[in-house]
Amino acid sequence: MRRLSLLALKVPAVLLLALPPLAFTHLYSALTFPSLVALVAGSRGLARTSRRLQGIETPYAPRPPLQQAHLGWYFTGYDYHRRRVLAVLSLWFNWIGRDPATWRDLAWLGTDPLVGTVLLLTSRLDRHARWTRVLLAPTGTARLGERVRELTDSRAEALDAQAAELERIERDLHDGAQARLVAIGLTLSLAQRALRERPDEADALLSEARATASDAVRQLRDLVHGIRPPVLTERGLVAALELLALEHPLRVGVAAQLTGRLPAPLESAVYFAASELLTNAAKHARGSTVEIRIVHNGETLVVTVTDDGIGGADTANGTGLAGVRKRLRAFDGTLTVGSPPGGPTVITMEVPCALSSPRTSTC
Ligand SMILES: Nc1ncnc2c1ncn2[C@@H]1O[C@H](COP(=O)(O)OP(=O)(O)OP(=O)(O)O)[C@@H](O)[C@H]1O
Ligand SMILES: [Mg+2]
What we know:
Helices cover about 65% and strands about 10% of the residues. The chain is α+β, with helices and mostly antiparallel strands. It has three domains: about 1-145, no CATH class; about 155-225; about 230-350, Histidine kinase-like ATPase, C-terminal domain (Heat Shock Protein 90, 2-Layer Sandwich). α4 (about 30-55) crosses α6 (about 100-120) and α8 (about 140-195) packs antiparallel against α9. The longest helix has about 55 residues, at about 140-195. Bound molecules: adenosine-5'-triphosphate and magnesium ion (MG). The site of magnesium ion has 5 residues, from α11. One of its GO terms (molecular function) is phosphorelay sensor kinase activity. Its EC number is 2.7.13.3.
């Protein structure tokens, strides 16, 4: 059956191969341009289907965005155009034409109907799969390019997140503790003035200043907690999550197999990510229990948060889950959401990392 569907793909490939003779025998005719476009688009389509059938990753470079430059000109990343339609066409041709994967697709289209058919008819399927990988799998350079793009994106996200965090801390300090300290200063100077003539009023003002000081301390404590909870620093991720579990309105179980400490920035990221998942379970799940499992298999930390609620978690419907995904991407980690209607919701965070021994807490 599989052999047959792979053989069936050779038919459109042979039909596409009729296009270059059509384009070049009527060179510069009305047929040349459309035949070449159909050839490239058709080879991409067929190569995509073959890749999907054989589980091969996509090797194409992403399409650069069309940018609006000064005075109404469009910049394609390669050249400038005044008219949008020309800019879009130029972008498409430059993007497709400069991508080595396009030429590899065309080379595959030219050779596969013969080589692929012979291999399918005379040998094992794995030989055909190996042949397909030769031209359709991403090259080392393409993989490297993709990795550089991923790292550039995650670095930009990490920098944005860091800037947003600094701004939040600055606002919290400005509107919280700083405002309280200013108020204490004013109340104390009023109390000082009232001390001799109106001691009762001074006493009331001093009590007010003391209450404001406790308020400022509480706000500073909350702020520190929002940056890195002390229990996380002192006792590590599992203890910090157990504490979160105790304070949670649902029944939360924590099962952990961790023999050492994680690097501090990763510990914070996973703690705040798990905290968002617990908040979501309380807000949206309508279930009664949550289970947190933490496992380190030597190379990767895997944290799974499962609730017995109604399901329907979707990263596209809010900022919380998308934020967790970004947070983990900075560590090369991933977030997988499994939440069918009716539940359960299983959210898995995986981050490659090494554990340090319990005594040496660096990694
Ligand atoms: N455990 C869960 N059970 C059921 N639905 C969930 C669960 N977690 C998330 N969802 C759904 O997925 C959506 C996205 O969650 P997300 O955390 O991104 O946003 P949010 O919680 O609505 O808002 P916020 O941006 O404040 O976190 C939620 O609006 C909710 O509908
Ligand atoms: Mg949320």
